[in-house]
Write a structure and sequence with these properties.
The chain is α/β, with parallel strands linked by helices. The protein has two domains: about 220 residues, Glucose-6-phosphate isomerase like protein, domain 1 (Rossmann fold), CATH 3.40.50; about 180 residues, Glucose-6-phosphate isomerase like protein, domain 1 (Rossmann fold, 3-Layer(aba) Sandwich). Helices cover about 45% and strands about 15% of the residues. It is built from 17 helices and twelve strands. The strands form three sheets. A five-stranded mixed sheet has the order 1-12-11-7-10, with helices on both faces. It has a five-stranded parallel sheet with strand order 3-2-4-5-6, sandwiched between helices. Strands 8-9 form a two-stranded antiparallel sheet. Helix 14 links the parallel strand 11 and strand 12. The longest helix has 22 residues. The radius of gyration is 23 Å and the shape is globular. The structure holds 5-phosphoarabinonic acid. The site of 5-phosphoarabinonic acid (PA5) has 15 residues, from loops. 5-phosphoarabinonic acid binds next to loops.
Length: about 475
């Protein structure tokens, strides 16, 4: 199991001005935490609670269908193109980047065991999109269009362009190159998929985009590029069982949630830094940023009081950002709680040759790159302690499907628990919806005329 070390948030290590008396706090909050965990598990099956993601470790039927589809299309495509944005792409990107061999898309077919390349086109930059279309052979590409709502402008505009191109290149066969992941019944993509006869998977009810990585949203692309989705499901399930423990001393998601919460309300740490010491985990930070920001950034609490709650998430990468952000983390405002993710065993051990022994870099010879990155993580931690900066460390023994699933699921549960501590609705995203509505209005979608008038007026007076 992945592990959490919270010692470096304790006042005995970083002093009482910025550190917590962690044991005392765990005791003080033990009942609250226990209630929260019990409640989450009790209400997870109730419609409208948006907690169905807590059941994804037990979703054998979807796993079966996903595996069947992946085996049917095995060896048929050279490329998978995922169209989606936000929660519909960040989880897929985070997990595939972590598990697939680095530089996957540059490897030969043989090196990829004949599994396809994978591209995530999340943004709508026209140059980027055109660039990708110039290098992709659509005849050998399977497009997985993912949108829960079925009408997100970014995703659907990309889809409209690509479907059109495919139709021109492939004739009627274009349909066999599209797999749609969307709502079971609702939305425009569902309607189109039924009309045009695409293969579809559905995002179960009561799972928001940012909590959907282990539904078909993630599982389909994972299976298509050969990831072991049984191990992913096992990872979530084992972590789910561990996190059912209502004792805060035994539950790492509760510990991390409570420490983040107390560091905010007692020590004014409103910034959360996610800093893996592994390039393969860099997109886990992107995924986490969305999870944390959309879940916790809320104007009102559950009592309808205006609170403007939120912990601002920041992504960093070790060791790279030691040469960028760490100066600020050490000497700037003491307003952050930094979480390191450490990997104990990399797949590769890379030795540094014993050369240039007569120079100042001679000490590196005979060591490994692994020694170096781990020493850098340790030294950053110690320097942060020197400056009384709190840090948490999550450790995994190696990067694989099982551990990544545990990590992401633990962070989801942590987010749900801290949302309860703040007494906010963790699962809605009114501002995201508002931005989507503004886009529809600006581009003339029927039904949004009122907003269009308002926006035109605002744009004239403010630009
Ligand atoms: O977490 C969320 O709900 C959002 O970020 C959505 O995932 C994002 O807006 C994309 O929505 P959809 O899947 O409906 O296209």
């Amino acid at each position: 199991m992945i592990k959490l070390n919270y010692r470096y948030t304790d006042s005995t290590i970083i002093g009482s001005e910025h550190g917590l008396n962690v044991n005392e706090e765990f005791n003080n909050y033990s009942e609250t935490i226990s209630e929260i965990i019990k409640n989450l598990n009790q209400k997870k099956d109730k419609p409208g609670q948006w907690l169905q993601w807590m059941n994804l470790g037990y979703n054998e039927e979807t796993v079966w269908y996903v595996k069947e589809f992946a085996s049917m299309v095995r060896n048929r495509f050279n490329n998978i193109l995922v169209l989606g944005i936000g929660g519909s792409s960040l989880g897929g990107l985070a997990v595939t980047e972590a598990i697939l061999k680095p530089y996957w898309n540059l490897l030969s077919d043989e090196q990829r065991d004949n599994y396809p390349r994978i591209f995530f086109l999340d943004n709508i930059d026209p140059d980027l999109m055109n660039g990708l279309l110039n290098v992709l052979d659509l005849k050998k590409t399977l497009v997985n269009v993912i949108t829960k709502s079925g009408d997100t402008a970014e995703t659907m505009s990309q889809f409209m362009i690509i479907r059109d191109l495919m139709k021109k290149e492939l004739g009627d066969d274009y349909r066999k190159h599209i797999v749609a992941t969307t709502d079971k019944k609702m939305g425009i993509l569902r309607q189109l998929a039924d009309q045009e006869g695409y293969k579809t998977f559905f995002v179960p009810d009561d799972i928001g985009g940012r909590f959907s990585v282990f539904s078909a949203v993630g599982l389909v692309p994972f299976a298509l590029v050969g990831l072991d989705i049984d191990q992913i499901i096992k990872g979530i399930k084992d972590m789910d069982l561990a996190l059912k423990n209502t004792d805060v001393f035994q539950n790492i998601a509760a510990q991390s949630a409570l420490i983040h919460y107390l560091m905010d309300i007692k020590k004014n740490k409103k910034l959360t830094v996610m800093m893996p010491y592994s390039s393969r985990l860099r997109y886990v930070s992107d995924w986490f940023v969305q999870l944390w920001a959309e879940s916790l950034g809320k104007e009102y609490n559950n009592n309808g009081e205006k609170v403007n709650i939120g912990l601002t998430p920041i992504k960093a990468l070790g060791a790279t950002d030691q040469h960028s952000q760490v100066q600020l983390y050490n000497e700037g405002p003491n307003d952050k709680l930094i979480t390191f993710i450490r990997v104990e065993n990399f797949d590769t051990v890379l030795e540094i040759p014993k050369v240039f022994e007569y120079t100042g870099i001679g000490y590196l010879g005979g060591k490994t790159i692994n020694d170096l990155i781990n020493a850098e993580a340790d030294s950053t931690k110690v320097s942060l302690i020197d400056y009384s900066r709190p840090t948490l460390s999550i450790t995994m023994d190696k990067i694989n499907e099982y551990n990544i699933a545990q990590l992401l699921y633990m962070l989801e549960v942590q987010t749900a628990i801290i949302g309860e501590l703040y007494n906010i609705n963790t699962f809605n995203q009114p501002s995201v919806e508002q931005a989507k509505n503004y886009i529809y209005a600006l581009l003339g979608r029927a039904g949004y005329e009122g907003s269009a008038e308002y926006l035109k007026e605002k744009l004239i007076t403010t630009i």
